[in-house]
Design goal:
- This protein has about 280 residues and is of the alpha+beta class.
- The N and C termini lie far apart (about 100 Å).
- A hairpin with a 2-residue loop joins strand 3 and strand 4.
- The strands form three sheets. Strands 7, 8, 9 and 10 form a four-stranded antiparallel beta sheet that branches.
- The radius of gyration is 38 Å and the shape is rod-shaped.
- It is built from seven helices and ten strands.
Length: about 280
């Protein structure tokens, strides 16, 4: 058998009643007849007791008879089954797994620290019990492998404005979906259902964190300066157009160049400009 088989075990309460009856017969027989043959009933009592087991809500018992899988009991309650069955408990509850932070290289070779938050549960008890050895450890190892593969498939961040490549930092929805698909594929062999998988922690490794911060700051400064220059050019153009349209002053090429230079210095400077009053002509 290579698949899960759900079975219903006998009610434990019926066998409990039978057990009480056998105990009463043995005790009565020993007291009234003092026949030592009633002591044999002790073996029957022990046989019955060994067959009792309890299945809690969202739990299961995998039943094996001399190496042969007989089925899985998923109904919760008090049951009795063949005492020669070995009964392996497997929880069906959802579980959280918060992986350790691992240092890996992203797509472009930068070392980063990353971990994952995984919510999973056992969906197939046969696969969990017999297709892998220690399915909980299997979840841990395969999740770690999936995280390492994911980190190597995307760059941490995008520094070029023209690029629209999905990154670990900006494309979280797509990255988390890819992570969940990867882990689901790896854990299918163990009968594990992945309920949710997402990146829990993401950062540059300490040895390059300061350098990358300076790079991000430089990119931000360049982008800000670009916007400032674009705005300043528009303001200068509007000023020259307004002055010419209202016949306030006539500009030759030299005057335009001088005024544009002065306005650009004032508008693009990172410090307040200090005005200088010119008491002569524009050419002196």
């Amino acid at each position: 058998m290579k698949y899960e088989k759900n079975i219903k075990a006998s009610s434990g309460y019926l066998m409990l009643g039978l057990l009480i009856l056998v105990v009463m017969v043995m005790v009565t027989g020993l007291l009234l007849s003092e026949n030592s043959l009633f002591i044999i009933l002790i073996m029957v009592i022990l046989f019955i007791i060994k067959g009792f087991f309890i299945v809690n809500p969202n739990s299961s018992k995998v039943l094996v008879l001399f190496g042969a899988y007989k089925g899985t009991v998923k109904n919760n309650g008090f049951f009795w089954a063949n005492p020669f069955y070995t009964k392996q408990r497997i929880s069906l509850r959802a579980r959280n797994f918060y992986s350790e932070r691992v240092k890996v290289n992203d797509k472009i070779g930068n070392p980063i620290l990353i971990n994952v938050i995984l919510v999973w549960k056992v969906a197939d008890t046969y696969k969990a019990a017999f297709d892998v050895d220690q399915y909980e450890e299997f979840v841990r190892v395969q999740t770690d492998a999936a995280v390492r593969k994911l980190a190597g498939s995307y760059p941490y961040d995008n520094f070029a404005d023209g690029q629209q490549e999905v990154t670990l930092l900006s494309g979280m929805d797509e990255v988390n979906e890819a992570l969940e698909n990867e882990i689901t594929e790896r854990l299918a062999i163990a009968g594990i259902e992945v309920l949710e998988a997402r990146i829990g922690y993401l950062a540059y490794a300490p040895e390059i964190a300061s350098s990358m911060l300076k790079r991000q700051q430089a990119v931000a400064i360049v982008a800000a300066r670009k916007k400032i220059v674009e705005g300043a050019v528009g303001m200068v153009e509007d000023a020259l157009t307004k002055l010419s349209a209202d016949d306030i002053i006539d500009f030759d090429d030299d005057k335009k160049a001088s005024m544009v230079s002065n306005l650009m210095v004032v508008l693009c400077g990172d410090k307040e400009a200090t005005p200088v009053i010119n008491t002569g002509t524009l050419h002196s």
